[in-house]
Amino acid sequence: MANPHRRKAIFLILAAILLVLTLSACQLSQTVAALLASPTPTVTLTATPTLTFTPTVTATATSTATPTLTLTPTATATQTPVPTKKPTVAASSGEGAGCSGPNYDYEGQVRGLINGIRANNGLSALSANGSLASAAREHSQDMASNGYFSHFGLNGSGPDSRAKANGYSFSLIGEDIYAGNMNLNSPSAAVGAWMNSAEHKAVILNGSFTEIGVGYWCDPNSAYEGYFTADFGRP
Fold first, then answer.
1. How far apart are CA 122 and CA 117, in angstroms?
2. Residues 1, 179: Cα–Cα separation, whole Å
3. What confidence tens digit (pLDDT) does each residue in 133-190 have?
4. In what order do the strands lie in the sheet with 226-234?
């Protein structure tokens, strides 16, 4: 018959093993339950937007200007007049002595000198045009009467608007002006001054011009006495 103490020891060992197994089973059950209770991880994809820039083309208006007006700087006589001079004395020996108003002979001489220069440079002669001559003469008179020297009138008119006002239609217009007193008040002095100026010479020798109008006006009480305007045009 087994020893009672031995049986008791065996019983205690078995009880301890059973307790360990029970605790292990409980721990395992809790772990499994925890795993079952935890949410299934979800993979979230965050899309990063891609910006595509499309270039915007803005149209810029452009224009091509066709010149219809040729202007050159003004030219004065090389001899500066004395504003306080007495015309009746100072002009007594000059070509402009006793001048007053227009001088059609002077206008014809200027036109002839210019055409002679053009011929010497292989260019065709310019035909006289009455409308251009009227515009040129009016401008010379305006400068002489109102004491200024410019391509632009006191009313804002220019060579182009004056030509149009006198009925001249053009595709190209140009102008040379000159003023001189005493012996410088002459067609030869005017054309000579223009030919000594590169800008004015370029107008005279411009092969695109086909017509000319010369206007002269003299006022003995003006600063320069004689005023010459040559308007060049092409219909």
1. 9
2. 163
3. 999 999 999 999 999 999 999 999 999 999 999 999 999 999 999 999 999 999 999 9
4. 69-71, 172-180, 226-234, 211-218, 127-128
Q: Which domain holds residue 172?
A: 125-193+204-215+225-234
The reply to whether 93 falls in a domain is: no
SS (H, E, C) 74-129: CCCCCCCCCCCCCHHHHCCCCCCCCCCECCHHHHHHHHHHHHHHHHHCCCCCCEEC
Asked if residues 183 and 189 have their Cβ atoms less than 8 Å apart, the reply is yes
- What is the reported pTM? 0.63
Of the candidates 166, 161, 188, which has an alpha carbon nearest to the alpha carbon of residue 151? 161
Give the burial class of 205: count Cβ atoms within 10 A of its Cβ; 0-12 exposed, 13-18 middle, 19 or more buried.
middle
Give the pLDDT band (50/70/90) at residue 3. Answer: low
What is the tally of structural domains in the chain? Answer: 1
Q: Are strands 69-71 and 226-234 parallel, antiparallel or unpaired?
A: unpaired
d(CA 228, CA 218) in angstroms, rounded, equals 9
Measured CA distances, 190 to 30, 85, 171, 181 (Å): 123, 21, 26, 11
Closest to 206 in 3D by CA, of 188, 186, 232, 180: 232
CATH value at residue 164: 3.40.33.10
